[in-house]
Amino acid sequence: MKRIVIFASGSGSNAENIITHFQDSGLAKVVHVLTNKKDAKVLDRAQRLQVPSLIFNKEELNNNRVLDALKRLKPDLIVLAGFLLKFPEQIIEEFPNKIINVHPALLPKYGGKGMYGNNVHKAVVANKEDKSGITIHYVNENYDEGAIIFQAETIVDENDTYEDVAAKIHALEQKHFPLVIEQILNTDV
User: Fold this and answer.
1) Which of 84, 104, 131, 134 is an S-S bond match for 9, by CB 3.0 to 4.6 Å?
2) Does the annotation count 103 as an active-site position?
3) Which CATH superfamily is 2-187 part of?
4) Catalytic: which of 21, 32, 103, 137?
5) How sure is the predictor about 135, in pLDDT bands with cuts at 50, 70 and 90?
């Protein structure tokens, strides 16, 4: 059974979707949820779904506390699902090609520091883009610059608000993220 660890900073809807997708799969299991926010809603979701969680601060992410926890957890895949901090190089080096992220835009557009969540959707609408989407990519030492694994797009209508775009992007994440994780785990022997 493959082991997945999820990092999230917010509501955790993608984390919950991944946890429930793999619960009875026989392929993988989410063994832990880690967050940098003690009031993140993902903690409630993890508790309800009986997945252990760990809360840490930015300093603990960059010293060895989180790395040591990951070494004990022995994940086959680390999934960033709405995790807002830059991932430390020492963790990336310890788990090469084992860390993925979902980004709410079609990279390389609208990536980089500060480009997350509604910031992305507002920029897409402000720039009158006719499409947006999601990018699932490997994590490297730079924000949103790792090798692209998968992209899916959606139409942005001229009357769409950023909330409309956010809803379309969320639907793509819910549909595709667990399936791409499954594909990665199935090809990783």
Assistant:
1) 84
2) yes
3) Formyl transferase, N-terminal domain (3.40.50.170)
4) 103
5) very high
